[in-house]
Amino acid sequence: MVRDFLHFRDSSNITVEGKGQVEGGGYDWWVREYKKQNPNGRPHMLVMERVQTAEIEGVRFTNSPRWHLKLTDVDSVLVHDLEIFVSILKQKDPLKKHHPFVTYTLGKVLEAVPELAAFVSQSELSIPTNPANTDGIDPAGSNITIRNVNITNFNDAISVKHSDKASVVARDGCTQDILVEHVNVMFSEGMAVGSVAPSADHRCARRVTFRDVKLEWPIKSIYVKTNPGDEGSGEISDLLFENFRMHNPIWWNIYIGPQQLKQHHDAGCLIYPFGSCKT
């Protein structure tokens, strides 16, 4: 069984702050995941579960094996002024010096494409891989504010998840009163809600606002995900997306429908709205 790097459970008045970096070394985990060689799963970088009142500030989170910030069944949480960054290249061992040929090659890459500096400067010469499930911030709960964050991660940048009647801390058993503002995003699946599938406990996400968001090379910009099911009920309501700037979209700018990639090895509803995908 793997353990998350930081995990706060059944706690209150938590503060995580600093100016340093937490490096997850995710590249090897992602490669093993595609080979189905992570039998015990993958750790998240920071998890809060049933937490009342918390603040996360300043830290740079990089290359998590799975989600970076997972906030589940929480209330009154502020996340601000931090960065989440994921590279498609293998992370450089800080204690290992590059071979001169590698140093020369990476230098030539940077001369040709200076925009790749953020990826290449901290990486080894390696085969690029698609980071697997490296969500930036996934909040589920009530009264959550996320502001002034920069995210590059190739998956959901911020994905608001549901709460339900079984929740302990989230008010009214529903993810609600979520504000996300002043966010810069590159190479991601943007601002997301869901997925939400029906349940006997009524899964719910409502009163969610995203505003003042800039996206460069987004795979998606706005992503609202349903998930089919035959029992119980689910709710996504009162969403506001305001003042979005989207540059050079790679795929859908706005997508509302069934989740397309349920897992990286499960195609889901990639062809929606064509075909017979359930909503």
Blueprint of the fold:
Layout: E1 6-17, E2 21-23, H1 26-34, E3 46-57, E4 60-62, E5 69-85, H2 100-112, H3 117-120, E6 137-152, E7 158-160, E8 175-186, E9 191-196, E10 203-216, E11 222-226, E12 234-247, E13 254-258
Parallel strand pairs: 1-3, 2-4, 3-5, 4-5, 5-6, 6-8, 7-9, 8-10, 9-11, 10-12, 11-13
Could you explain how this protein is built, in words?
The protein has 279 residues and is mainly β. The chain has helices at residues 26-34, 100-112, 117-120; strands at 6-17, 21-23, 46-57, 60-62, 69-85, 137-152, 158-160, 175-186, 191-196, 203-216, 222-226, 234-247, 254-258. Strands 1, 2, 3, 4, 5, 6, 8, 10 and 12 form a 9-stranded parallel β-sheet that branches. A 4-stranded parallel β-sheet has the order 7-9-11-13, with no helix packed on it. The longest helix is centred in the middle third of the chain and has 13 residues, at 100-112. The two termini are 34 Å apart.
Order of helices and strands: EEHEEEHHEEEEEEEE
Q: Whole-number average pLDDT? A: 88
Q: Could you tell me the strand content as a percent range?
A: 35-45%
Q: Shape, please? A: globular
Helix/strand structural class: mainly beta
Main β-sheet description: 9 strands, parallel
